[in-house]
Write a structure and sequence with these properties.
Length: 263
């Protein structure tokens, strides 16, 4: 490790001021701290968001759930409100990492980091959520830009995410057993604007699988999903799985998600 200053703001305004001056925000620390230990990240100032009470919590607003950026994975998983409104989201949160990770990791930290194999980005994209920051509101389709890259400006902080409540949804995750990240995760949601299928773990960033969406919007059935040949040309190939294997997993996980949604 190396020298840096450590700030603990008590309000969003103070955190925004520090971040705007070059401070690096830290939420659960599940990504930033390992990066700092490996010297992949070397912030001169760390801005700890954990003392800002207004950034945590879950509330219902009309036909949507608004979840604060500093809400822990374990709190999303255990929330009766989330379990009733979007059980697939509670299920997703309950299967992130291990108990220690779920006790520290946060919704906002995961989404802002946009790890290619993180679970939450698939929920944000499939549920057509809105990322709320200290500056603006960003639609899910315009938020995830690329590997570890989002539409956030320098110093811009996520304060909450608004999830429209779907008609039904399911999340299926094939884990990489050592890290428990998604080798392939598929979130399928039937929303007011149609079926959305978001995939994580298979490419450099979370993405919508449009061929599966088109098929399922015409005929929401397991057979319809099975008939789609998933293109492997832009998918990851590494020591854990080939691109062709990941393409097959996308198909299989989508079929299983549809079957689950159909009961």
């Amino acid at each position: 490790m190396y020298a840096f200053t450590y700030e603990t703001p008590a309000s969003v305004a103070d955190a925004v001021r520090l971040a705007g001056a070059g401070g690096k925000p830290i939420a659960g620390g599940q990504s930033l701290l390992p990066s700092m230990r490996l010297r992949l990240a070397k912030p001169g100032q760390v801005v700890d968001l954990n003392g800002i009470a207004e950034l945590a919590g879950i509330r219902r607003e009309g036909n949507a759930l608004v979840i604060g950026a500093m809400t822990r994975h374990m709190d999303v998983a255990g929330s009766a409100e989330v379990q009733a409104a979007v059980p697939a989201l509670a299920h997703l949160a309950a299967h992130i990492g291990d108990r220690q990770v779920r006790a520290r990791g946060t919704l906002g930290g995961s989404v802002a980091n946009n790890d290619p194999a993180a679970c939450y980005p698939s929920a944000v994209l499939a549920l057509n959520a809105t990322v709320i920051t200290d500056q603006r509101e960003i639609a899910a389709d315009g938020f995830f830009v690329g590997m570890y890259t989002t539409a956030l400006n320098e110093g811009e902080l996520i304060t909450a995410i608004r999830f429209p409540i779907p008609k039904r949804a399911a999340y299926l995750k094939f884990k990489q057993p050592a890290s428990r990240f998604s080798l392939v995760g598929v979130f399928v949601a039937q929303t007011d604007v149609g079926v959305r299928v978001a995939v994580t773990g298979a490419a450099s960033s979370v993405f919508r699988q449009q061929a599966l969406e088109a098929a399922l919007n015409k005929d929401f059935s397991v057979a319809s999903a099975a008939a789609v040949k998933v293109d492997a040309s832009d998918l990851n190939s590494d020591i854990h799985a080939s691109a062709a294997y990941r393409a097959n997993l996308i198909s299989v996980q989508t079929q299983r998600a549809v079957a689950q949604m159909l009961g």
